Amino acid sequence: MTIRDRVSGFLENRFARKILRSFFSPLPSHYPENIIKRLKKVTELACREQHTYKKLIEQEKTDIKSINTIADFQNKIPIVSKKDIFTGESFKDFFMSTDAKVLHSISTSSGLTSDFAFGVQTKKENSFAHIFLENILLPFFNIQDGNLLFINCLSMGTHVQSRRFPCAQLSVRADSVVAVLKKAVHSFSTIVILGEAFFLKKAMEDAREKGVRWDKCSIYLFNGGEFVSEYWRTYMTTLLQLPVDNSRGAVITGMGITEVDFIVFLESYFLSTLRRLIYNNNELVNDLCGPGTKSCPQIMHYFPDRHFVETIKNSDGYSRLAVTTLDPHRVIPLIRYQTGDEVALLKEEKIISFCRKHGLVIREQFPRGLPVALVWGRPYRFQLPGGELLSDNEVKDSLFMDIDTAGKVTGNFRIERPLKKDPVAIHVQLRNGISNEASIHDTLYDSLSRYTNQPVKIQLYEYADFPYGIGHDFERKNIYYTRTD
């Protein structure tokens, strides 16, 4: 190892230790007077050097120098969306630089809405990703990396690298994942797997059927990208035979947004335990998340040193995420960028008082330096007869509420209603080799009745007969509803 490598390693470790300390105690950089300095800096930079923001600010006739408080920032800087930023004919319209010496990689969003956003990493940002993975993420979850294999199951083009341990870049090939796992469980003491929830379900089920021995090593699954039911986590931990104390692995939820950052929201052990404890209790869910909450949202932290997070109430009454990236070196600055995700901010004091009020004892430490948000993702709500609402998040809950039934479905479904007067119909795909049985239908119907008393038609399809595509398109997010009325 060269002297340069040693110095670089020392600086990276010192930087990582500082960030880890900030997780458990707020830093001065988190204070409002320092946040506004960073907001003003990145806004001035974007408006000076990026064509899109320069044009927007000129249209609004905003004087950036007059912004002195967070309230000024929120009142004077417009909300923007994907269409405002990424519809130019050239990358130069929204890149700060197209210098090949600066750029490292370009990736796209899933394209679910047919409008693509772009994520760009510079060489410096790629270096930060290494540091975050190796020196921050693993210690935060007490994952020992002495003999570790990392398996990346994200869609094509989404690469995660490490300089300290081997990475298998397998994309969404379940057979490749199984082939690697069969050997890896006998070769590594710890395996960390990153992927989307329903792909991980399929891959782990296939691995079990091929005789993979989960007791041979510690297994950690990191999933993200869309709303994940707590019942899905229960099913996966049961499938992997993981104890609830996280002593031999865990199933951890995060959320990345391609154009924003590889991690925007992330659980801690404290928050995952909190969600597990309250998930089956409507009274507790409503007390923490607000009256009328049917399906408990994901409860996750965000990182105030990297993102300024706001919630903007839309005309439909739901609050949606607006995020400002705080790194002045980004190729694509995003200022008050609305992603479409439903989010509500949750104060630390409310979480602590809530736990005391209901006698919830959580042994894991609460990361006091990290703010908390409730994240619903992008649910679509159907209005049932009588005005009651039913969303795809509640259907996801219903599919995984019963562990035996969870093992018989792929997780793929479609909600539709031909006419407003018709009952909502839910089409559910069964796993390959599972027959359409009345007991599966009855169990799903009983699970769904927790969320609505209105008539809902459930139609089961054997795997190859599912009318909305036989297999998951794991390269992009699923479409769970058809708006036909």
Provide the fold topology.
Layout: H1 3-24, H2 32-49, H3 51-60, H4 70-76, H5 82-86, E1 103-108, E2 118-122, H6 123-140, E3 148-152, E4 167-169, H7 174-184, E5 190-195, H8 197-209, E6 218-223, H9 230-239, E7 249-257, E8 261-266, H10 269-278, H11 282-289, E9 298-302, E10 307-313, E11 319-325, E12 337-346, H12 348-357, E13 372-377, E14 381-383, E15 389-391, H13 392-400, H14 403-406, E16 409-416, E17 424-430, H15 438-448, E18 456-461, E19 481-482
Parallel strand pairs: 3-4, 3-5, 5-6, 6-7, 16-19, 17-18
Antiparallel strand pairs: 1-2, 7-8, 8-9, 9-13, 10-11, 11-12, 12-13, 14-15, 16-17
Which class of secondary structure composition applies to the elements? alpha/beta
Number of domains: 2
The 3D shape can be described as globular
Helix content percent band? 25-40%
Mean pLDDT across every amino acid position: 87
List low-confidence stretches.
Answer: 1-8
Q: Mind telling me the C-alpha Rg?
A: 23 Å
The oligomerization state is single chain
Distance between the termini: 65 Å
Written overview of the protein:
The structure is a single chain. This protein is an alpha/beta fold and 485 residues long. It has 15 helices and 19 strands. The chain has an 11-stranded mixed sheet, sandwiched between helices. Strands 18-17-16-19 form a 4-stranded mixed sheet.
